[in-house]
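Posting this for the archive.
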Amino acid sequence: VGKALSEIRASAFTDAELAGYDKFWDQVSVEVTLYNSGERKGRAEGLAEGRLEGERQKALEIARKLKALGQSVAEIASLTGLSPEEVERI
């Protein structure tokens, strides 16, 4: 019924009005696509940032434990990927 009603409404338009109508909905489609694409990209970037932050927190946790066990700053830096300065600040 909705589609038939839409067809009836469309048939009442002039060619210029139909062209404008089609152009409007084409633009809406483009905007929705861009929005969805941006949302997916933002979500992926957020996940990547979260993963990196999680890896960093894990490296800091391991460094604290190694430091408590008496490992050298150089060894801890080598094992965790942290800089010697970061290890010293722990």
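Helices lie at 2-11, 15-68, 73-80, 84-89. The longest helix spans residues 15-68.
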